[in-house]
Amino acid sequence: MRISILGGGGFLGRKVAARLARDGRIGDRQVTALTLFDIAEPPPPEDAPFPVRRVAGDVAELPEAAIPPDTDIVFHLAAVVSAQAEADYDLGRRVNLRGTDSVIDACRRLSRPPRVVFTSSVASFGGGQNAVLADDARQIPGNSYGTQKAIGELLLADASRRGFLDAVSIRLPTVTVRPGRPNKAASSFVSGIIREPLLGLPAELPVSDDFAVWICSPRRAVDWLLHAATLDTGPMGLDRSVNPPGISATIAHMLQALDEVRPGASKLVARVADPAIADIVGGWPTAFDPVRARTLGFAAHEPLVELVRAFVADDLEATRRERASPG
Amino acid sequence: MRISILGGGGFLGRKVAARLARDGRIGDRQVTALTLFDIAEPPPPEDAPFPVRRVAGDVAELPEAAIPPDTDIVFHLAAVVSAQAEADYDLGRRVNLRGTDSVIDACRRLSRPPRVVFTSSVASFGGGQNAVLADDARQIPGNSYGTQKAIGELLLADASRRGFLDAVSIRLPTVTVRPGRPNKAASSFVSGIIREPLLGLPAELPVSDDFAVWICSPRRAVDWLLHAATLDTGPMGLDRSVNPPGISATIAHMLQALDEVRPGASKLVARVADPAIADIVGGWPTAFDPVRARTLGFAAHEPLVELVRAFVADDLEATRRERASPG
């Protein structure tokens, strides 16, 4: 299988590349070539048993090398994130909308339609605290990022119907625990209250302890992306979007899981109410009833405490090293 | 009020312009200027009591004159129709998607956000025969036109949230009776089985008599567009889309209404089954439960027989003249 990862330099793109390098296969097929595309040349995965080509460029004007002829699978993870798309409308439109059109056009030029796995987002929904969304819930986004993700799903479903490509869009929950540094996303604290105490650092909690959020681990997000790359899309019909089986957790549950892994660590979390942040994240749905994803074979989520343990096993040391370096 | 109609040369655009010229006002406000924009310079309405400016151009690169400074209301009716958007993907994307982005950018340049009334479509839904769709039904389009309309709604809702403009999107039913000539739209027969017999001409019916369709008269469509131009959008929140109160009619009911207006006219309708057409139109929803539209003050539909009478009163003679002329 010849695979391209657009956004291959990002947090999830690097994890998908690392998994492919480790496994050497996807589903029951061997990986024969990997192309990594991003704004800057992405780092290659370690010890890949297949050739890796790295390409830098603008996703809105995708260079042909980003999706070479005979590509079988495209992971379309390239995006401007929520805070940035909200701050700069034109940039969000260019990367998140024109970028997806550009991916569609690149796929149209191939000799056969590739599978395209697209990361949509829970941010494409409203609903708020206490909402449990069914698979057929309407997307009424409260931000430009969510709007652009919902549009990407529509574009890719139509392109699939027309036979340009064969898409699966996964509406990722808030991926937790994100490695690295805190960022300016409104959801940054969701990872922060686990990651920072595990590093021995203080963290601020801007919402109440009974605040609930729909999350998934990076491990499970990668599992879902790989499953989406090989599943039979026949039963999906016109609707190529999936709400994957994340887990709904309150802050209290998350801190309890943290203490189970590192007793007393939650003492480093300070309650510092921030109504502006609470207002934004309070609009996101807190739970889904992902019947369709289960039917389509997407793996159930591991228990919350495993999500904390996975961060310790996979990312804690690398994060510590990265944070110790300047910048 | 300074008003622009994009798609001012089309069937509905001309009807909106004619109504504004006749009334001289919109809601309880006087119309002070009208700009008509289309690919070719649109015809001016007769006896307009306000200045009318006509502009020709490409909606995807909207000339500044199409939406002059101080515009209060924009009717965004410019679109490539369903059969054309299906036959030519790039043209549909250019007009229906880039066109809407271009309208948003023109509105961003104005000193205050104008009301934008957008014609979305029942084609943005699937569902099929026997489905009655609630206001919160998801749009899973089965064609590129419907996809592009659903995307237009998302773009305009986000632009409204950001304060670039203040949008209302109306998902028009199949507008019946369309004046003029039969066209290549799969839905052409819905108007044809009434219009052609009233002209004394034969018509073909490609579906069964119990086939149901969600329709509205051109008169009521214009009423809804004008109401959308002046209603208070405050109660709409993030969701700027409305399923208006059309009527669900079977072919048998439509032919009965035709015979009530012109006894025996339905004898000119020949049953000529066309599985290809039946397959396309069979995917469209046949009824909505438009609670929200009623709450927002959109006028209820007149009885089916009035829809036939309205065509006779408003469009039969003009259609006869047009059809008698060459071309």
Report on the architecture of this protein.
The longest helix of chain A has 20 residues, at 89-108. With 327 residues, chain A is of the alpha/beta class. The radius of gyration of chain A is 19 Å and the shape is globular. A seven-stranded parallel β-sheet of chain A has the order 5-4-1-6-7-9-13, with helices on both faces. In chain A, strands 10-12-14 form a three-stranded mixed β-sheet. Chain A has eleven helices and 16 strands. In chain A, 53% of the residues are buried. Chain A has helices spanning 11-23, 82-87, 89-108, 144-161, 188-198, 218-230, 251-261, 275-281, 291-295, 304-314, 316-324; strands at residues 2-6, 25-26, 29-30, 33-38, 52-56, 73-76, 115-121, 132-133, 166-172, 174-175, 203-205, 212-216, 241-242, 247-250, 269-271, 287-288. Chain A has a domain at 2-173 and 218-242: NAD(P)-binding Rossmann-like Domain (Rossmann fold). The first copy, chain A, is 38% helix and 19% strand. Chain A starts with a strand and ends with a helix. In chain A, helix 1 (11-23) crosses helix 6, helix 3 (89-108) packs parallel to helix 4 and helix 7 crosses helix 10 (304-314). At the A-B interface, helix 3 and helix 4 of A face helix 3 and helix 4 of B.
